[in-house]
Amino acid sequence: MAKKALPKTTKKPSVKKALTKARKGKAAKGKAQPERAKADAKAVVGVIPPMSAAQIEEAFRRFQAAEPEPKTELKYVNPFTLLVAVVMSAQATDAGVNKATPALFALADTPEKMAALGEGRVRDLIKTIGLFRNKAKNVVALSHKLIAEYGGQVPRTREALESLPGVGRKTANVVLNCAWGEETFAVDTHIFRVGNRTGMATGKDPFEVEQKLEKAVPGPYRRHAHHWLILHGRYTCVARKPLCERCIIADLCQWPGKTVLQ
To answer: Is 251 a catalytic residue?
Structure first.
């Protein structure tokens, strides 16, 4: 089956040109705040035009050109510490987690050491992180479960990961992708916003956005897709005032809150 052609405005896209415009801050202009708010209201209910398959492929082509090997910003040393870091990142920033975990991981980088450390000591080491009491409880509990049921190893299936205390679908997807290169889409607030706002994958909840990304993201880009989208949402397509002027996919994005420069 032949691929759909890009719209006339992007029929012969130039990655170099798009990146140059973005770096110069000339990719697009954002509209006034009231108009941006209205545009976001439309985006979250999926009433903006969807990106075409060709536009989505072009978007990821540009993401890859700008950052060929994106990686998680969480610091970890093995699959277990990755799992712990992701559990701790819920409702917290990666930067905040990274400040707390080095001391913790220096003492406990295996389930056995974490279980021996105990909930109270873990709690003291991560108290700068939001919800630290509950997270300490979950980290010690999941360590005990890993020892008892998985031989002290982090399981490699989503179902098994989701059976661990404090681990949901998003956390499981991050571990599968970062630890073992699985083609998963961990939809956090950033990806949820980018998917809806751009028209790449609209949905009323993270699972719906994840399912649409599963269908929409072309094969060559699937492994790194969720990292590109997270980084785009974290540093460019931010919630309150997106930096459309520095967006490398501004001319492809369907969000009515910006004006593409010609």
So the answer is: no
CATH fold for domain 79-180:
Endonuclease III; domain 1 (1.10.340)
CATH number at 8-70+185-260: 1.10.1670.10
pLDDT at residue 13, rounded to an integer: 54
Q: Per-residue pLDDT for 16 more than 80?
A: yes
Tens of pLDDT along 162-216? Answer: 999 999 999 999 999 999 999 999 999 999 999 999 999 999 999 999 999 999 9
Comparing CA positions, the residue from 239, 257, 89, 230 lying closest to residue 168 is 89
Catalytic residue among 135, 170, 212, 258: 170
Residue 113 has a CB neighbour count (10 Å cut-off) of 13
Kindly name the residue from 21, 40, 188, 212 that is annotated as catalytic. Answer: 188
Domain coordinates of the chain in residue numbers?
Answer: 8-70+185-260, 79-180
